[in-house]
Structure formats: structure tokens, C-alpha cells
Amino acid sequence: TLIHLSGGPIIRMFQMGGYTPAPHSIKYIVSIQKTMGQHFCGGSLVNKYWVLTAAHCNMGVNEMVIVAGDFSLSRYEGTEQFFIPHLLIPHPQYNSITNNNDIMLIKLRAPVYLNSYVTTVPLPRQGASLAEGRVCRVSGWGFTSSSGGQIPSSLQTVKLPIVSTEKCNGTDSFNGNITANMLCAVSNTDFSIKPCRLSDSLVLLFQGDSGGPLVCEGRVYGLVSWGKGCADARYPGVYTAVSKFRSWIDNTIFSYYSRCTKN
């Protein structure tokens, strides 16, 4: 079954080799939380007013809070900034069945204050591609064991190589379900490893959050979108290819400010 990697009750994909980075070393990531404080998706701060995430993280504008400058979800550190979304703009061609165009912009009601704990992250140019084997980084607060378990209190990160669309679309993998608007990456390239055994007592797995950033060469090239279970080399994690949407992102933000100027 194909699954979204959301922070809700839905099962999510796992990546091997995740670790806790230095506190506040990944400054562009935000935690998207329910109004009661439960983390359910990740996002990237691309502008003082704008967050980039997955369209399937759309819980409704009145149902979420955006937290920047967070590292530990279990305690208040004094570095957090809390924001109410003003507008959610999912891609107009988002398809929840095929997962195509799984991308959304969130306009904040107030600007983020950029400091030593919070920064924006650049986007790739329109149409920019990544070579197979290019190592990228995905970060988030996803579950860390194959049986679910608790969301880790501290941010997690893992480095992953890019997998070609041809391999990802192979008959022994996603069999044609990967569109031109998606890219694949996987941390487990050893087909002999079976990382999803529920009997394993060691916590060896890490899953990124839905909507969380896949950063390559310092730019957000991917958004955690969907997968097919645990860190199985046959089924890489599938990410929204942000470079396919750079023009849409720019035009959406520009048109918003154009409307504001006219009004």
C-alpha cells in the first residue's frame, strides 16, 4: 500500500541512520502543529512570511500553528516563535490519489524574526535536477521505530543518496507511479537488510515528517511526500520535486502581494 508520511495516525516511512544534530543547527525547519500542540508535519521557512510544505498536510487554516526555532518538542527552550497561518495555498493540481503535485504554501499572519536560531532556506531554480547518488539531508521529528513509538523530543536528521527516477519507477519498485514532479532517495541501499522487523529491539530507523525538507547543496529540493513502508531499498522515499514548482512558488507569492497592493 502507498502511504503518506503524515504525523497523524497513518503509518509512515522509515529511514535508517538518523541521528540528533547539534541543537539549532538546522534553522530553516518548522514544526507544523495542531492547535493543541501536537506535531504532525514539517515545513521549510522560505520567506519571513511563507512556509513550504506538502499539500497533504492541509488540516485547515484554523487547525494549525507554525513553530519556528524549535529543537526539542518536549520542553520550552525560549528560542521558539509561534505563528498562526493566514492562508493555505495547496497546489491547484494536487491529486491525493496519485500524490502528484504534493506541495503547499502557508502564508503567516506575522513575519518570522530571523536570528541565530531561525533562518530561511533557498530554493532550487526551476527545472534544476539532481544526479543519482547526490547526498542530501532530510530532517524532522518523525517516529524512530518500525512499530510506531513516540515522536522523538529532539529533531532528527539523516543523509540520503538520490535514486534515479528510472530505478524508482522499475517493475520491482514503484512500477510507474513516480511522476516527473517527484524524486526518490533512500538510506538503505543494501537489499539484504530487512529493517522492518518488529522484533528488533534496537531503534535503528528514522522517518522524516510529511512536508519536511530534503536539502541538497543547501537548497530545498524535496518535500517528504509518500512511501511504501519501511526503509526497504526496493522502495525509496518519495519526495515532491521542488524544482518543478519554483515558478509556481514565485508566482503565487508575487500574485498575493500584487493583490494586496491593489486593495
UniProtKB/TrEMBL annotation:
Alphabetized CDD domains for the sequence: Tryp_SPc
UniProt keyword annotation of Secreted present: yes
Reactions that this protein is recorded to catalyse: Preferential cleavage: Arg-|-Xaa, Lys-|-Xaa
Pfam families with a match to the protein in the record: Trypsin
GO MF term (any one): serine-type endopeptidase activity
Top EC class, one word: hydrolase
Keywords: Disulfide bond, Hydrolase, Protease, Secreted, Serine protease
Domain Peptidase S1: 15-254
Keyword Cell division part of the UniProt annotation: no
Record-level GO BP terms: proteolysis
A single GO cellular-component term on record: extracellular space
Top-level taxonomic group: Eukaryota
EC number assigned by the record: 3.4.21.4
Location relative to the cell: Secreted
Similarity comment: family membership: Belongs to the peptidase S1 family. CLIP subfamily.
UniProt name for this protein: trypsin
Organism encoding this protein: Myripristis murdjan (pinecone soldierfish)
